[in-house]
Design a protein that fits this description.
By secondary structure, this protein is an alpha/beta fold. It has 2 domains: about 15-120 and about 260-325, Rossmann fold, CATH 3.40.50.2300; about 125-255 and about 330-350, Response regulator (Rossmann fold, 3-Layer(aba) Sandwich). Helices cover about 35% and strands about 20% of the residues. The protein contains 11 helices and 15 strands. It has helices spanning about 30-45, 60-75, 85-100, 125-135, 150-165, 185-190, 205-215, 215-220, 260-270, 280-290, 295-300, and strands at about 15-20, 50-55, 80, 105, 115-120, 140-150, 170-180, 200, 230, 250-255, 310-315, 315-320, 325-330, 330-335, 340-345. The strands form 3 sheets. A 7-stranded mixed β-sheet has the order 7-6-8-9-10-14-15, sandwiched between helices. Strands 2-1-3-4-5 form a 5-stranded parallel β-sheet, sandwiched between helices. The longest helix is centred in the N-terminal third of the chain and has 17 residues, at about 30-45.
């Protein structure tokens, strides 16, 4: 008869099941697949033998997300990772809450956070806060704002107003424009009337519309040599250094180069460069693996997610706040002709993070 298990080496707990709800087909499938691949990489690199991942396809739809969440929970998941879009997170959260299960979503829309929902996504409000506080600390206090008429524009403008109110700054002028930039010329001309009173211009735009708007600013005498342009992580684009109007501009984002180790490992594993947000999938599974070491009970203990020291992710330090959003250690970055230059590094711990 074989000997029984040694009292000093108890058998490991049964597998701890975690749902992974992503758009693997339909809307957002490309990013969903990147998140899935990154999650798989984390499972192999740091996954506990106790962790069992249950991937389910949301098809990029709220109904699909709800059904995928129900399926994962029916199969024994005690934590849900994902889904991606705000509407999906809302639908999944309703299902997860009904069974007392926490959800770690990938959305950046803070309106769906809280009550058991934790968001890993980079919120624009946090990026605005970091950059504006940096400016205020350097006596850059008189702001103008050129903001798209969109939900994103509303959120970033509200964050700007909040930071200026709390930090002693002034919002001198605000102009809004259509989200496609079709009336940007009019908005810039209007804003130019206040240019003489501005120390900074808040411009939370990115991509093609930013490239359309930026040359208009000096054309209408909003001089980047006199007025500091301040934006968000949408400016994480080395090509912006080729736009003369953007040189010297500030924004907040992850420490440049911080994710290079993850990117290299992803490329070796899958033969392609990961999507910029793929690291969220890796971080979610790495965090789940850490919790799984404590068994099912640890997954049910939401206090574990609120560790004030935070966690080290692919893009640096992060921690969940009581409202369900993620606070991140962000750097302040300046756009220069030869690329992006860190002018205020990301904190190495939340003890030293700027408040």
């Amino acid at each position: 008869m074989p000997p029984g298990p040694s009292p000093s080496r108890p058998a490991p707990p049964a597998g701890v099941k975690v749902g992974l709800v992503l758009p693997l087909t339909g809307r957002g499938a490309e990013l969903g697949r990147a998140l899935f691949d990154a999650a798989t990489l984390a499972l192999f690199e740091v996954g506990s033998e106790r962790l069992v991942l249950l991937p389910r396809d949301s098809a990029g739809l709220p109904d699909g997300a709800a059904e995928a969440t129900r399926a994962a929970l029916a199969d024994g998941a005690r934590l849900v990772l994902g889904p991606l879009f705000r509407e999906e997170v809302e639908a999944s959260a309703a299902v997860a809450r009904s069974q007392g299960v926490a959800l770690i979503g990938f959305s950046s829309d803070r309106t769906v956070a809280g009550n058991g929902v934790f968001l890993l996504g980079f919120t624009p409000e946090a990026q605005v806060a970091r950059a504006v506080r940096h400016a205020l600390a350097r006596e850059v206090k008189a702001f103008g704002a050129l903001v798209p008429s969109s939900v994103y524009g509303d959120a970033t403008l509200a964050a700007l107003k909040r930071e200026l109110d709390e930090g002693g700054g002034t919002l001198v002028a605000v102009e809004r424009y259509q989200s496609d930039g079709s009336d940007a010329d009019r908005a810039v001309r209007q804003l130019a009337r206040s240019a003489g009173s501005l120390q900074a211009l808040f411009l939370p735009e990115g991509g093609a519309v930013l490239r359309q708007v930026a040359p208009l600013l000096p054309y209408y005498d909003i001089d980047p040599g006199k007025i500091r342009f301040i934006g968000t992580g949408l400016w994480e684009d080395r090509m912006l250094g080729r736009e003369p109007a953007m040189q010297g501009a500030w924004f907040a984002g992850p420490q440049p180069g911080g994710a290079e180790a993850f990117i290299a490992r992803f490329e070796r594993a899958f033969g392609r460069r990961p999507h910029r947000l793929a690291g969220l999938g890796y971080d979610a599974v790495a965090l789940a693996a850490l919790l799984a070491q404590g068994g099912v009970e640890a997954l049910a203990d939401r206090g574990q997610l609120l560790n004030p020291s935070g966690f080290e992710g692919t893009d640096g330090l992060f921690r969940f706040l009581a409202d369900g959003t993620a606070e991140r250690g962000l750097a302040v970055i300046e756009i220069r002709p030869n690329g992006l230059q860190v002018i205020d590094p990301a904190p190495s711990s939340f003890e030293f993070a700027q408040q």
